[in-house]
Design brief:
heterodimer, A: alpha/beta, TIM Barrel, eight-stranded parallel β-barrel, two-stranded antiparallel ribbon, 9 helices, globular, B: mainly alpha, three-stranded antiparallel beta sheet, two-stranded antiparallel sheet
C-alpha cells in the first residue's frame, strides 16, 4: 500500500483547538500571542511571490504549529492534476513545514478554467479509481501524507453505488491518506441528503481522522420547501454540530480541531471564544474518559455537547 | 450529449474502462457549462433526496461560483465599487465573470482583465476615468503580492563616478507598477480609498500613477510628466540616458534629475549595473 511508506504528518500537531488565520487578525496575533493550539491557512492565499501575507505567516509560523489547507487542487476532476499547482504546493510545504496538509474530496478545475467552488462527485468505482490515483500522485509529490476532507453537498448523483462515508473509507484504505473530518459538512450533507448523521459518522474510519473542521452554515429551502443548508462559514458553529462533534470526540479522544470562519469574519475575541469552546468540549470528554474508561456518554455541563445528537433531518421534508 | 454514464456505455464499441473515464470528464464538462450559464439546462443524473432533479439545489453551486468571483473582484477593486455603487458593480462584475472566468486556482491573480473589460463596458462609458482607476487598483493588488526586494538608498549612488551615471541600468523593484491616465486617477483613488470621497477634483488636471511596495505598505504617487515613459524604459532595460530620451520625447517638461531622485526616493530602485552595450547603442 503506497500509504504505508509515508511519514505520519500529525506528529507536531497538538490535539487542541485552532483557528483559521485571517488577514484581519494578523496584527492582533503578532502583538498578543494568544493561546491557541494552531493556525490554518488556505494554501492558495499564500501563492503570491512576496509581500505582507508571507511576512505575517512566517512570524506566526515561528510561534505556532500550522495546518495548510488546499482549496484548488481539484482532486476529483477527471483530468490530470495541474503539475504547476502541485509544484507550488510542494514549495509552500517546504517553506512553512506545516504539521498537516489537507485537500477536498471535490473538483473545481475544468478545461474552461477554475470554477472556484468545491463541486460534488458521483461515488462510483470509476471515480474511486481516479481519486485514489490523484491522491497517490499528491502524496508522492509532496513526500508525505495528506488528509482528505469530506464535502458538504446539495445534490447527489443517481449513478452513485457507494455511500459517502464508505467511499471515503475505501479511499483512505487504498491510498493511506488521513481524514480531515468536517463535522459541519457532515451535518450539512446529511440534512440536505436525508442521511442519518450518526450512522454517517459510525461508517467513517474514525481512527484515521487526524483533524476536525467546525464552521457555521446558512439555512435555506429548495423548491419543495425541504431544508437546504449552505456551507457558509459566516457565523458561529451550530448546537447540532457541537453535539455531533462531541459524538466524534467521545470515540476518538481529543483531535486538532479548527474553527473555520471565512465570511463576515468576527473580531478576534469572538473567534477565539469558539476555539475555547471546542477546547472545553475536548477537555470535558477526555476527563470523563479518563475517570471511567468504559464510559460511553458525556457528563459535561457546557452548552449542549453532552446531549446525544438528534437527527439532522428535523422534519425538513425527508421521506 | 449523453444522458448518464451508466446508460451511455452499454452500446459503445470501446473498452469499458476508457469509455467510463471519458464519460466522467464529459459529465464534469456539462456540469461546468451549466454552472457558468444559467440559460443551460440542468446536468442530468443529479438529484435531491427524493431522486428528482432540483434546480434550486443546482443553483446553490451556480451562486457559489458567481458570488465567490464577484466578492473576489469587490475585494480587489474597492475604489471602483465605491465609485459606481454596489448594484452597478455587481452587474458589471457578473458580466465580466461570464467572459473571463479564472484560468488558475490562485484567486490572488483573478481580475487582471477587469480594467480592460470596464473600458469596453457600455453602461460605464459616462465615467471615462473608470478603467484607469481600475488599472491603478490592479497595480495595488499586484504590488501587494509581488516579490520582496530591498530598495537602494540615494547614498548608494554616491560612490559611482558622475560620468558613469548616464550609462547605468537600474533594476526596478518587482512591485513597481505604472498606471497611465489623462485623468487625475491618484486624486480620485486617494479621495475614495479612505472613505471620504467628497473632495471636488478637477478632471482636466490629469496624470500618471506610480504604485509600489518598497517594504510592507503599498504606496501610490502621482508621477510628473514624462516620468512614466522614463520608468517603463528603465524597466525594459534601457540605460538612464536612453530612458531619459523616452521621457523627453513623451513630454517637453520632463525633468531628468528630479525624476531620477524621485524614483530612488520612492524606493523602486533595488540595484544597478553599468551598461557596456549602452555605448554601442549610442554609437
Amino acid at each position: 500500500m503506497p500509504g504505508s511508506t509515508l511519514k505520519p504528518s500529525h506528529m507536531r500537531m497538538p490535539k487542541r483547538a485552532g483557528v483559521g488565520l485571517k488577514a484581519e487578525h494578523y496584527r492582533t496575533i503578532i502583538e498578543t500571542s494568544p493561546d491557541v493550539g494552531f493556525f490554518e491557512v488556505h494554501a492558495e492565499n499564500y501563492m503570491g511571490a512576496g509581500g505582507p501575507p508571507h511576512r505575517y505567516l512566517s512570524a506566526i509560523r515561528d510561534r505556532y504549529p500550522l495546518s495548510l489547507h488546499g482549496v484548488g487542487l481539484s482532486i476529483g476532476a477527471d483530468r490530470p492534476l495541474d503539475k504547476d499547482h502541485l509544484s507550488r504546493l510542494r514549495r509552500l510545504i517546504d517553506r512553512y513545514e506545516p504539521a498537516l496538509f489537507s485537500e477536498h474530496l471535490a473538483w473545481s478545475s475544468h478545461d474552461a478554467g477554475f470554477l472556484n467552488d468545491l463541486l460534488p462527485l458521483p461515488y462510483t468505482n470509476a471515480m474511486l479509481e481516479r481519486v485514489a490515483e490523484h491522491i497517490d500522485q499528491v502524496q508522492a509529490s509532496i513526500g508525505r501524507q495528506m488528509l482528505l476532507e469530506n464535502p458538504s453537498t446539495y445534490l447527489s448523483f443517481a449513478e452513485s453505488t457507494w455511500s459517502e462515508p464508505e467511499f471515503i473509507a475505501e479511499i483512505v484504505r487504498r491510498t493511506g491518506c488521513g481524514l480531515l473530518l468536517d463535522v459541519n459538512n457532515v451535518h450539512v450533507a446529511c440534512t440536505n441528503q436525508c442521511w442519518n448523521p450518526v450512522a454517517y459518522l459510525d461508517a467513517c474510519p474514525l481512527s484515521d481522522v487526524q483533524q476536525i473542521h467546525l464552521a457555521g452554515f446558512a439555512t435555506d429551502a429548495d423548491e419543495k420547501h425541504r431544508t437546504l443548508l449552505i456551507d457558509a462559514h459566516d457565523r458561529p458553529v451550530a448546537e447540532m454540530v457541537w453535539a455531533l462533534y462531541a459524538h466524534v470526540i467521545e470515540r476518538t479522544g481529543p483531535l486538532p480541531t479548527l474553527i473555520e470562519w471565512d465570511a463576515n469574519v468576527p473580531s478576534w475575541p469572538t473567534l477565539k471564544a469558539e476555539a475555547e469552546h471546542a477546547q472545553i468540549v475536548m477537555a470535558d470528554i477526555d476527563g470523563a474518559r479518563r475517570r471511567a474508561p468504559s464510559f460511553a456518554g458525556s457528563t459535561g455541563n457546557h452548552r449542549s455537547h453532552g446531549a446525544a445528537p438528534a437527527q439532522s433531518r428535523s422534519g425538513g421534508g425527508c421521506p | 450529449m449523453i444522458d448518464t454514464a451508466r446508460g451511455s456505455t452499454r452500446n459503445l464499441p470501446y473498452p469499458a474502462r476508457r469509455v467510463r473515464a471519458a464519460s466522467l470528464a464529459e459529465q464534469q464538462a456539462a456540469f461546468a457549462i451549466a454552472l457558468l450559464d444559467a440559460q443551460q439546462p440542468l446536468p442530468t443524473g443529479l438529484q435531491g433526496p427524493d431522486g428528482q432533479p432540483s434546480a434550486r439545489r443546482f443553483a446553490v453551486y451556480r451562486n457559489n461560483v458567481v458570488v465567490g468571483l464577484v466578492e473576489t473582484l469587490k475585494a480587489a477593486y474597492p475604489v471602483i465599487l465605491r465609485l459606481v455603487g454596489e448594484e452597478f458593480f455587481v452587474a458589471m462584475a457578473r458580466a465580466y465573470v461570464r467572459v473571463e472566468p479564472p484560468a488558475s486556482p490562485i484567486m490572488l491573480d483573478y481580475g487582471a482583465g477587469f480594467p480592460r473589460f470596464i473600458g469596453q463596458f457600455e453602461p460605464a462609458a459616462a465615467l471615462p476615468y473608470l478603467q484607469d482607476v481600475a488599472r491603478l487598483e490592479r497595480g495595488w493588488v499586484e504590488a501587494y503580492h509581488a516579490a520582496d526586494a530591498l530598495p537602494l538608498p540615494l547614498s548608494a549612488f554616491g560612490r559611482i563616478p558622475p560620468e558613469d551615471i548616464p550609462r547605468l541600468r537600474l533594476v526596478l523593484h518587482p512591485s513597481a507598477r505604472i498606471a497611465r491616465s489623462v485623468f487625475p486617477i491618484v486624486e480620485i483613488w486617494q479621495a475614495n480609498v479612505d472613505g471620504n470621497g467628497s473632495l471636488s477634483i478637477d478632471l482636466d488636471d490629469g496624470g500618471d500613477a506610480l504604485v509600489a511596495r518598497p517594504d510592507m505598505e503599498v504606496e501610490v504617487r502621482r508621477l510628473p510628466e514624462g516620468a512614466a515613459a522614463f520608468i517603463e524604459a528603465l524597466r525594459a532595460g534601457a540605460s538612464i540616458v536612453d530612458a531619459a530620451a523616452e521621457g523627453h520625447s513623451a513630454s517637453s517638461r520632463f525633468d531628468l534629475a528630479g525624476t531620477l531622485r524621485g524614483v530612488v526616493e520612492a524606493g523602486i530602485v533595488v540595484g544597478h549595473d553599468s551598461a557596456p552595450t549602452g555605448s554601442l547603442e549610442e554609437a
